[in-house]
TrEMBL record:
<dbReference type="GO" id="GO:0022857">
    <property type="term" value="F:transmembrane transporter activity"/>
</dbReference>
<feature type="transmembrane region" description="Helical">
    <location>
        <begin position="286"/>
        <end position="306"/>
    </location>
</feature>
<feature type="transmembrane region" description="Helical">
    <location>
        <begin position="350"/>
        <end position="370"/>
    </location>
</feature>
<keyword id="KW-0472">Membrane</keyword>
<dbReference type="GO" id="GO:0005886">
    <property type="term" value="C:plasma membrane"/>
</dbReference>
<dbReference type="InterPro" id="IPR036259">
    <property type="entry name" value="MFS_trans_sf"/>
</dbReference>
<feature type="transmembrane region" description="Helical">
    <location>
        <begin position="12"/>
        <end position="35"/>
    </location>
</feature>
<comment type="similarity">
    <text>Belongs to the major facilitator superfamily. Drug:H(+) antiporter-3 (DHA3) (TC 2.A.1.21) family.</text>
</comment>
<feature type="transmembrane region" description="Helical">
    <location>
        <begin position="142"/>
        <end position="164"/>
    </location>
</feature>
<feature type="transmembrane region" description="Helical">
    <location>
        <begin position="103"/>
        <end position="121"/>
    </location>
</feature>
<keyword id="KW-1003">Cell membrane</keyword>
<dbReference type="Pfam" id="PF07690">
    <property type="entry name" value="MFS_1"/>
</dbReference>
<feature type="transmembrane region" description="Helical">
    <location>
        <begin position="312"/>
        <end position="330"/>
    </location>
</feature>
<protein>
    <recommendedName>
        <fullName>Multidrug efflux pump Tap</fullName>
    </recommendedName>
</protein>
<feature type="transmembrane region" description="Helical">
    <location>
        <begin position="170"/>
        <end position="191"/>
    </location>
</feature>
<dbReference type="InterPro" id="IPR020846">
    <property type="entry name" value="MFS_dom"/>
</dbReference>
<feature type="transmembrane region" description="Helical">
    <location>
        <begin position="77"/>
        <end position="97"/>
    </location>
</feature>
Amino acid sequence: MNTSIPPNWRKNFYLFLIGQLLTGVTSMIVQYAIIWYLTLETGEESVLAIATLVGMLPMAILSPFVGPFIDRMNKKFLLIFYDAIVAVIALGLFIYGINNDVYPLWMVFVTIGIRAVAQTAQMPTVQSIMPTMVPEAEITRVNGQFGIIQSLIFIVSPGIGAFMVAALPIHWVILLDVIGFILGAGMLLLVKIPEVASQGEKISVVKDALEGFNILRENKPMWKMTLIGALFMLLFMPAMSLYPLVTTKYFGGTIVHAGWVEVLFAAAMLIGSFAVGIFGKTKDRMPWIIAAYFIVGLSIGGSGFLPGNMSGFWVFLVLNVFAGIVGQIYTTMNMAITQQSFEAQYLGRVMGIVSALMSVAGPVGLIFAAPVAESIGVQNMLVIAGFGGILAACLLYFTPSVRNYDKFLQRKLENEGQ
């Protein structure tokens, strides 16, 4: 995939990672602060479900169409542009918050939606950049390192967000997005991002999106893996949108306890990222991915059978640690396989389609999240999510072309490198 990696690629790549850390941590603190704000102000399943739905719909709708722009435009400019949009919205909210004590729900939802639009384009852009910056043999390992950065962001953000919401007016917390933009854009200016063959070509959004879809479908194992992942998201995301209420309404905890769940889950993801750093060069990553789905299913599903008290909550914390570790192993290895399966000049388009298929299932499930949770209880949503993980593991294992795909891919890459 990449044949012109400069000798100093490590310095260039780590500058890129630091920039993503700086902009990511401020953005995620604001994201969690908004969730804590909604939880404290309303405490309603429907509000959190709508907020999550608004956050996911842009990814489901727009993902297929951002790929052509990613493949053909200057990626450094795109990343700075995404962060600038979020910073402008944050500045507007800050000015509004100076003169008003409470944000109306519609304004919060619009903010979440605009942030989601930027995120929809940002993540495929980053994912398409990474394999062009590092040698082929290092792709899985650097994905693990990127996972470490993401885990660090998730570790510090919930606690800081909860603390800042409790200590400061929400508009001061939102101002962090502006600071993150300044820091992240400054770091990106120091980074050299390689151009790819399709950069600068004429953009035809619908045609290019269809091309990305067809390229993905032609790779039958990757197509099946994506569909199985979408099915998992359909069953998994409704429970995840209600996670704060699982802690507060079912286990009887506080927002602080809900923050602990997020922090420990992210810390477990960090452990998973280190595990990928150690085992990242394995010749067959599919057994790891299948096992990860299965363990996530057992951990999250088992949480739904715990007693609704603080004793059950502590076990819930432990089970989330297991889910966080293996979940990050799955995410990192699956992303590396995807990046190695397609040529760099098409990767943005393919990642856009993958993101859309994985994301569209989430909003469909979220439509039913609030009424179903109110009917059967938020804890039983965890059981449904757990079933989704176990089902995905079984489907991957009993589909031979998928189960053996990575061994085939590694042989193909070795032959191309000879």
